[in-house]
Amino acid sequence: MGIPALSIVIPTRDERENVPRLLGALRAALGAVDYELVFVDDSTDGTDGVLADAARADARVSAYHRDRGNGLAGAVVEGIGRSRGATIGVLDADLQHPPEIMPVMLRRMEEAGADLVVASRYLPGAGRPGLGPWRALVSQGTRLLAWVMLGAARRSSDPLSGCFLVRRGVVEGVTLRPVGFKILLEILARGRYERLAEVPYVFVERGAGQTKAGVRQGLALFRHIATLVADNPSDARLWKFLLVGASGVAVNMATFWVMLRPLASPVLPSGVVAGLVSTFTNFVLNNAFTWAERRERSAAVFLRRMGKYYVATGFGYLVYLGLLWGFVHLGLPPL
Ligand code: GDD
Ligand code: MN
């Protein structure tokens, strides 16, 4: 058999009753498409037997059973490694992702010349009745969190979707470190793609069985996001910058107190010195930590940049000194 145009990777864990229905629906939906189905199974309910039968009956189906799985995202990564198509699709086995979305995504990929097509629950015409009120809330909250923390997540309306299409080149040679459930997030953050397109879909109720998502998967998502932030300098930068800013407040207050109390200086000169000192520590820390990979080693450039930093932050300090003066005249304690 030649190399298929499309490989659909399908993770399964205890989906015995859904697999036959899924196979029927996929065959009907894909029609003339040249495809293969790659199942990666971590079940203990006999799904592996159903899959083995399907693989024997149909050369387009292959199934891999694992006795010690590493979760949904890990299963998808394994399936990608075992697949051969130039385009790779990922689909849940429980029919919550309508199989008919696959040809729609393929068409969208061609039309848009996209490297990555995300099936989104958050576009006009989409929906998520299969989530239930509590999960719907969690889904909105975690989506927002992913957007805030990760620049790559902001490229998609549904970065936590489990249904997407990707050209092989996007993930080939890329080390994916799957954690938990959210393999798309991993690919968005680490994959090599330029154009991203989306199609709406309705996330419906499960066929049979129950979800494997729970508190453990939620915690895994937090760990996953933290890892991706730490691994990406531009996502980590905001947090480092805020941390340095907070340290500057501590330095500023401590200096102000030393000037005011032990050294008994007047309020405004104390404020000026505190500002000069904390601006200095902020600059040095941002240079060495926040922008560590662009750290300046030449003294001349370092000093010129520090000068600019003093000018830029100086306007803020003028406001600060004005307020300090005002508050003290209102009779408030300077600290
Ligand atoms: N191999 C393997 N190993 N498959 C797993 C595992 C595992 O440990 N855990 C779950 N799966 C399979 C399920 O059998 C199903 O086919 C698919 O992964 C999704 O699992 P569900 O338990 O049904 O998750 P969900 O419906 O709550 O959430 C899914 O859909 C969301 C919407 O697209 C996940 O794919 C989410 O990541 C996704 O956001
Ligand atoms: Mn599901």
Search tags:
11% strand; binds manganese (II) ion; binds guanosine-5'-diphosphate-alpha-D-mannose; seven-stranded mixed β-sheet; alpha/beta; 335 residues; single chain
Task: Provide an overview of this structure.
It is built from 11 helices and 7 strands. The protein has helices at 18-30, 47-57, 71-82, 101-112, 132-149, 168-171, 183-190, 215-231, 233-260, 267-290, 299-329, and strands spanning 6-12, 35-41, 61-65, 87-90, 116-120, 164-167, 196-200. It has a 7-stranded mixed sheet with strand order 3-2-1-4-6-5-7. Strand 2, helix 2 (47-57) and strand 3 form a beta-alpha-beta unit. Helix 8 packs across helix 9 (233-260), helix 9 (233-260) packs antiparallel against helix 10 and helix 10 (267-290) packs antiparallel against helix 11. The longest helix has 31 residues, at 299-329. The chain is elongated and about 90 Å long. The termini are far apart. Bound molecules: guanosine-5'-diphosphate-alpha-D-mannose and manganese (II) ion (MN). Guanosine-5'-diphosphate-alpha-D-mannose binds at residues 11-13, 15, 40-42, 69, 71-72, 75, 92-94, 96, 160-163, 181-182, 203, 211-213.
Secondary structure: elements and pairs:
Layout: E1 6-12, H1 18-30, E2 35-41, H2 47-57, E3 61-65, H3 71-82, E4 87-90, H4 101-112, E5 116-120, H5 132-149, E6 164-167, H6 168-171, H7 183-190, E7 196-200, H8 215-231, H9 233-260, H10 267-290, H11 299-329
Parallel strand pairs: 1-2, 1-4, 2-3, 5-7
Antiparallel strand pairs: 4-6, 5-6
The structure holds guanosine-5'-diphosphate-alpha-D-mannose and manganese (II) ion.
